[in-house]
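ok trying again, last paste got cut off:
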Amino acid sequence: MKKISEGRTAEVFAQDQEKILKLYRDGFPMEAVKYEYEVNRIVAFLEIPAPRAYDLIDFDHKKGIVFERIEGSTLLRMGVQFPNELNSLTKEFAELHYRIHKYELDVERIGGSSVLNQKEVLARNVQNASQLSNEVKHKIIEYLKNLPDGNRLCHGDFHPENVMIGERNWVIDWMTGMIGNPAGDVARTLLLFRFGTLPDEAPSSVKDALELMRDKINGVYLEQYLSYSGLQFSDIDEWMLPIAAARLSEWIPDEEKALLLNLIEERLK
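nice, full thing came through this time. structure:
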């Protein structure tokens, strides 16, 4: 099979003209693979534009999901290729995120599926952040408990490399899908714009372009999302502390972790 892309958690191979195999790296938990498959089933039920998940398989001693093959380029790479269209692409990105957040999740209506709760996921990830003391973890989790609950569909990792532009705009990589408050989901996106890094395998031209485009994308996205949703910036900003702390538990470079720790320290003052 021909490898067509890869990230920190998985490699993607072409199976044929209609299907691809997302093969997870060694050590990636089977529960997370099954969860992504299940969330994709729910997303398909809701008719959100996402690749259909066909099957869970074992291949070369690794776990994988067979997905519908879609054609196109990620929004970030489209922005690199067509810089004059960056504003309009970012507006489409914000509108797509808002459309996702309009879905209220009725678990019984979608077959009793166990979609994770945003606050529970964040609290668990904060607890797993080895860089934080137990005292700081406790303080952040208690703060998180007092934030507003929500029952909307959230992607959990919505950024321009997870949106594909083709015959339509597709949203991919639903392994972090959850039920929660859209403001927290938007805070995650803003945090990724500010500090997020691309995998080592990403082309250097794309990495360089991201550094140049960060602030512009961030500003346009935030302005558009606030306009669509009616939220205030403060509604989103209050989620930044637990979102940053939870991010520390992920497979990210030490440089990004250092930036997150500085942000957390500032927020706790």
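cool. The CA atoms of residues 125 and 164 lie 28 Å apart. The first strand starts at residue 2 and ends at 6.
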